[in-house]
Amino acid sequence: MDVLEAIEARKSIKAYKPDPVPLDLLKKIVGQALHAPSWGNTQPWEFAVAGGRKLKGIQEAFVKRWGEKNREEAKPDVGRPYVFPMPYKTYTRDHMALERTFLAEADVKNRDVDNFRNYGAPACIYLLIRRAFVYQTKGVNVWPLYDCGAAVQNILLSATAYGLGTVPQARSVIYPDIIREALGIPEDRLIVLAIAIGYPDWDKQRNKMRSTRQPLEKVATFYGF
What we know:
The chain is an alpha+beta fold. Helix content is 41%, strand content 15%. A hairpin with a 2-residue loop joins strand 3 and strand 4 (139-140).
C-alpha cells in the first residue's frame, strides 16, 4: 500500500480483535512518527506504548473513576474545547447523528466505557510533550502540538499500511494521573493524546461507518492560477 492509498483507506476504528500486535511491528510504526517535520527540528514528541496488564489496569482505573457516584471532573494536561462554535458545531452534530445509525443500543449506552477501554484495542500509544516547552513563562507555545500532529498522522498512515487500525483519543487521557502512575511518566511530561491500535474487527457494524468531509471548494481558495 502506497501513501496515497493509505490516506484514502485510513479511518477511525472503534472495534478491535483481541489479537496482540507484535512488539517489533509497534516499534516500526512508532519509528515512522520520528520522520515527521518539526519547527527547528525540535522533535517535541515522546511516546509511551502500553499493552497487556499495564493497559488493562489503566483502562479499568478510568472506568472506575468515571463510574463512581461522585464522578471526578476531567483534568487533561492539554485543555479541550469548552464550546464548539459554528460551523464546527454543525460538523460535530452531523457526525454524531451519523455514528448513531451504526451503533447498537448497547454501544450507545456504553460509549464512554468503550472509549476508556480503547474500543478493545490490545495496545495504546500515548503521546507526550515536555510541559516546559508548551507552558512557558510568556504564554502557551502551541507549535509543538502542531508538530506532534504530523507525527501522529505518520503513525495512523503507517498502521494502515500494515493492516492495522487506529483511533486518536482525547477522552482516554482525561485522567492523566492514572496513566502517569501506571507507566511511571514524570510530571514534567504532558500526556496529550492516546492512540488505540490493533487489528480491526470488520464484522462489527460500527467499523463500516465512513465519516464525511467538507468539499474542497468550501475549505480551500487558490490564488494566482
